[in-house]
Design goal:
Elements lengths: L1 H9 L9 H4 L7 E8 L3 E2 L10 H16 L8 E5 L6 H12 L7 E4 L5 H14 L5 E9 L13 H4 L2 H5 L4 H11 L4 H20 L10 E7 L4 E7 L11 H5 L22 E11 H7 L5 E10 L9 H12 L8 E4 L4 H11 L12 H4 L3 H19 L3 E8 L3 E9 L1
Parallel strand pairs: 3-4, 3-5, 10-11
Antiparallel strand pairs: 1-8, 1-9, 2-8, 5-8, 6-7, 9-12, 11-12
Helix pairs in contact: 3-4, 5-15, 8-13
Catalytic activity: an acyl-CoA + acetyl-CoA = a 3-oxoacyl-CoA + CoA
GO molecular function, one term: acetyl-CoA C-acyltransferase activity
Pathway: Lipid metabolism; fatty acid metabolism
Length: 416
Amino acid sequence: MALERIKQLSSHLYGAPKGIAALKQKRPDDVVITMAIRSPLTKAKKGGLKDMTTDELMLEMFKQTISHSQFEPALVGDICVGTVLTPDPVYHARGAALAAGFPETVPIQAINRFCSSGLMAATTIANQIRSGQIEIGLAVGVESMSQNPDKGGPQQAEDVGANIAAKDCTKPMGWTSENVAEDYNISREDMDEFSAKSYQRAEHAEKSGYFAKEIVPFPAYQNDPTSGTRKKVVIQKDDGIRYGTTQENLLKIRSAFPQWGKSRTTGGNASQITDGAAAVMMMTREKAEELGLNILGRHVSTAVAGVPPRVMGIGPIFAIPLVLKHCGLSQEDVDLFEINEAFASQCLYCIRELGINPEKVNVNGGAIAFGHPLGCTGVRQIVTGLNELHRRKGEVLLTSMCIGTGMGAAGIFLRE
């Protein structure tokens, strides 16, 4: 019944220019992207960013933003930071922005809708620009899973936990992956085949230099256990990509959650625990042209949908059709999909259920191959998607992800 209700809600449309021809018409008030960059994504507790505190990670991302934005930081009307696990995020974000060189006049906010937080940050800034509140805004996604490991859901009040769906909100994400695999008959073999392709695509993209235009060399502090001091190094590439990965290799990995379902989820077919940051600068087309900036793309629309918490991974099945309807587009109009690979079970099921051409999805690999820093992912997908859209000279990018507690989000972007 819950899924049927969601489908009914998804059928309601919002008024907006619809269809690819209408969307391609350029207007002064278009919300455009003039900068899209990210850090390398590195393994939590093991990788190049593991010793960076959260505010240091934010500080470096803000410095990179100022360096690459090509205009005075005082012109930024607002900053929105998507982050999930960071305690007291506005303290860290505000301090890091000021230390990086943003003047005191530039305000900041933080947003948390779990795995979609980066996309929500970009959407918040886009909506502020679209409504005329600001002309220029910065969306950032940041997560240090080394410094802030995921400790799971909190204790619930008795009256809240008495509701079955509410109780499911706090259950481990691995449990939801096993529920999707069991409920929708996603086999271990298919999950590992999907995951192997993610690794293979990421390896090919990295070796071919496809990420060179999106990754900025990222200075990072690393602890030296022998001397007790910190040294500064420059991290230049993702470190989670396992070269030579095959389905046969992955099938040898033992189940991560033998206590649940058919135990099909493993460390090889689920997203890696990762540190990283990404940023997109957004403004009106009129302002970008006034400043003489190169326009990379345009935000068109974002949609969010709710699903049962026990199968939270199916969120994109409802968010993707909803955002396409908002824009008057079909799946065939989309050149590239960036769908977060939280778990192979859920991502593979979403692709199958929607009938999406798998050759259009995560063409350079996904979170299984190089990680899912929770708050960063939504912005990272925009950065990666726009970069690849330019390389292929495509027009339409759709980004999407499932969201803990039972939601899904999706966004549409156009290449200039």
